[in-house]
Amino acid sequence: MTSISVIIITYNEEQNLERCLRSVQGIADEIVVVDSFSTDQTEAICRKYAVRFIQHAFGGYVEQKNWAMGQATCPYILSLDADEALSDELKNSILKVKENWTSDGYIFSRMTNYCGKWIRHGSWYPDYKLRLWDKRKGQWAGVKIHEKVELLAPFSTEVLKGDLLHYSYYSVSQHIAQANKFTDITAFEAFQKKKKASVLKILINPCWKFIRDYIVKMGFLDGYYGFVVCYISAFATYLKYAKLRQLYEKQRSA
Questions:
Q1: pLDDT digits (tens, 9 = 90+) for 155-183
Q2: Helix (H), strand (E) at residue 145
Q3: Is 190 helix (H, G, I), strand (E, B) or coil?
Q4: What integer pLDDT is reported at residue 253 of this predicted model?
Q5: In 10 A of CB 181, how many CB atoms?
Q6: At 34, is the secondary structure helix, strand, or coil?
């Protein structure tokens, strides 16, 4: 049977971590938690489970997750965020993979819980993620908040049944604050790549984002919170371009 190391990076995740750890019981041959010096009960929660708890300074999501992968002793990796958990169906799918590993990596859909409501439409679902792979064939790559697992070519992947459950935002204000933080990052990345923010983009792109997510991708079927998710996502698109335009204005006036 295939041996799997579950890797999780944390910082002050007492609200979510235990749910995540419970969900991998019976799947994980090893659980490695790499913590960025939490000040809450994260470490104490880990001590309740068979976890290798390691503290390591955070140098970015890609860097931290790859460092965590380097601490794993099993040849196969299941990487989860602390605010994620395996559904029962996905857990059963992974157990079958353990008995017969046939691909280099495995992909599954991620379903997000927003303020207590499961979001099943719009651009948030299905949100396919490659999170289970042969560590000899791939590692984390990307920039800032857009990290993803990249496999070495040639490679094979397979989609598993079941959802990765993502417990994202517990309040609308938390979502808005995160959107503001992330658009600071994405605007600066676009600025470094010399991308432009025309008035036309600022006007049209947020509108199209909302129409696509809420109407074309049927976000309206998720009720009130479906509207909130689509609206804030569209507003985040506006913020990204508005902040990018401001960066160019600051450059010109410097």
A1: 999 999 999 999 999 999 999 999 999 99
A2: none
A3: helix
A4: 87
A5: 10
A6: strand
Question: Per-residue pLDDT averaged across 40-57, rounded?
Answer: 96
Over residues 61-73, the pLDDT tens digits come to 999 999 999 999 9
Is 186 within 8 Å of 142 (Cβ atoms)?
Answer: no
The full DSSP string for 59-75 is: --HHHHHHHHHHH--SS
What pLDDT sits at residue 121? 97
Closest CA to 85 of 27, 143, 170, 145: 27
The string of DSSP letters for 98-120 reads: HHS--SSEEEEEEEEEETTEEE-
* CA–CA distance, 34 with 94 (Å, rounded to integer): 23
Question: CA–CA separation, 214 vs 230, rounded Å?
Answer: 6
C-alpha–C-alpha distance, residues 163 and 165, integer Å: 6
Tokens in use for 102?
């046939």
Pairing label, strands 138-141, 129-134: unpaired
- 193 pLDDT band, cuts 50/70/90, is very high
In this structure, how many other beta carbons lie within 10 angstroms of the beta carbon of residue 235?
17
